[in-house]
Design brief:
The chain has about 350 residues and is an alpha/beta fold. It has a domain of about 240 residues: NAD(P)-binding Rossmann-like Domain (Rossmann fold), CATH 3.40.50. The protein is about 40% helix and about 20% strand. It has a seven-stranded parallel beta sheet with strand order 3-2-1-4-5-6-11, with helices on both faces. The radius of gyration is 21 Å and the shape is globular. The termini are far apart. The structure holds NADP nicotinamide-adenine-dinucleotide phosphate (NAP) and ligand G4F. NADP nicotinamide-adenine-dinucleotide phosphate (NAP) binds next to helix 1 and strand 5.
């Protein structure tokens, strides 16, 4: 019998890679997508199957994490073996502008799904994966963060996700649901949304290279992140639900780099030479070929509070799940740059 999975957030970066992985593993994959005024399925168009096909293994449903009856009905009809809750208002800076909406989707949305599993008495059938995040640690002085580190989130997004982390554990303990958290550190890919810093830098520097943009404005250039590849990380999600018991796992690479390091690596891939000058909000990068300022800070991109450094320790996942990242920082950056250049050459 084929396994059935339900992915919330299937139109997002991770949802699209996870859907590909599960289809390869012969699952029947159901995905929840939001109704939008224009198509929002560009990341999954290559695996889309026409609803008029008699036998499909990818089925999309309209839905929203804010809509309890809708989620309940979808889960009642499918009775999935696995639910991956990847849907979220996932942008940290936006969460300061839309804190209530973020909490509704990212915190209460998780309860709505867990309540459906509980009330439909699917405890013995349905496993639940919660997309938790290194944002729940907040700013910290620790070199490497693991499953036992303290949580002190510093954004409405981080606080909402910490609620979901705990409610997932609570429903596991209280109702015997196979419910696990993947505490994932930043992960990127050519499918990363354009307003996250990595993709913004890649797209911006490629445009500058082709003289289509003058200067790229960013926020905190000194923040450090542990960047892995989304493809590696969705494999970890699947492994987490195949483990013999529900548990929580940090998924990371163990290495972190500053935003400036990321910029330098992109520039290297584009054969551009940069010179950094100034400090703090006055820091700029100059293109040494023509002496033009191509990176500068715009204070609108600084957050009310930011996390200076995040580095993860994935040793538990390595030991219990036999998981480790395959794609390193420079390979990730190269793939993102090559993919962007490819669009221009086409
Ligand atoms: P993403 O690209 O922003 O995708 C988010 C998905 O959620 C999209 O499909 C989006 O739909 C959907 N969504 C947003 N609000 C919704 C709502 N109210 N109801 C239903 N669907 C909704 O995010 P991602 O990078 O793939 O991340 C996947 C999950 O992992 C998120 O929960 C994120 O918070 C978490 N996470 C991400 C990272 C990372 O570095 N990428 C790290 C740790 C945790 P539309 O396409 O219609 O917008
Ligand atoms: O790329 P970012 O927006 O990612 P952030 O805030 O780390 O959040 C991402 O990773 C989390 C896991 O830790 C996920 F849970 C979350 O859903 C999301 O996927 O920003 C990274 C860093 C920040 O310190 C930010 O202040 O880059 C800094 N930054 C500097 N200039 C910028 C910019 N971030 C953005 N988005 N845009 C800028 O212009």
């Amino acid at each position: 019998m084929k396994k059935t999975a339900l992915i919330t957030g299937i139109t997002g970066q991770d949802g699209s890679y996870l859907a590909e992985l599960l289809l390869k593993k012969n699952y029947i994959v159901h995905g929840i997508k939001r109704r939008s005024s224009q198509f929002n399925t560009s990341r999954i168009d290559h695996i889309y199957q026409d609803p008029s096909l008699h036998k499909r293994n990818l089925i999309l449903h309209h839905g929203d994490l804010l809509d309890s009856p809708n989620l309940f009905n979808i889960i009642r009809n499918i009775k999935p073996d696995e639910i991956y809750n990847l849907a979220a208002q996932s942008h940290v800076a936006v969460s300061f502008e839309q804190p209530e909406y973020t909490a509704n989707a990212d915190a209460l949305g998780t309860i709505r799904l867990l309540e459906a599993i509980k009330n439909l008495k699917l405890q013995s059938k349905t496993k639940f994966y919660q997309a938790s995040t290194s944002e729940i640690y907040g700013d910290n002085n620790l070199k490497k963060l693991n499953e036992n580190s303290n949580f002190k989130p510093s954004s409405p997004y981080g606080v909402s996700k910490l609620f979901s982390y705990w409610i997932t554990r609570n429903y596991r303990d209280s109702y015997n649901i196979f419910a696990s958290n993947g505490i994932l550190f930043n992960h990127e890919s050519p499918r990363r949304g354009e307003t996250f810093v990595t993709q913004k830098i890649v797209k911006g520097l490629v445009k500058i290279k082709y003289n289509l943009q003058g200067c790229l404005f960013l926020g905190n250039l000194d923040a450090k992140r542990d960047w892995g590849h989304a493809k590696d990380y969705v494999f970890a999600m699947w492994k987490i639900l195949q483990h013999k018991k529900p548990d929580d796992f940090c998924i990371a690479t163990g290495k972190s780099f500053t935003i400036k390091n990321f910029i330098d690596e992109v520039a290297k891939n584009l054969q551009m030479k940069l010179k950094w000058e100034g400090k703090g909000v006055n820091e700029v990068a100059i293109n040494t070929r023509n002496n033009k300022k191509i990176i500068a800070v715009n204070q609108m991109y600084l957050r009310p509070s930011d996390i200076n450094s995040l580095t993860g320790d994935y040793s538990k996942a390595k030991k219990l799940l036999n998981w480790k990242p395959k794609i390193n920082f420079s390979q990730l950056v190269k793939e993102m740059v090559d993919s962007e250049l490819d669009k221009y050459s086409k």
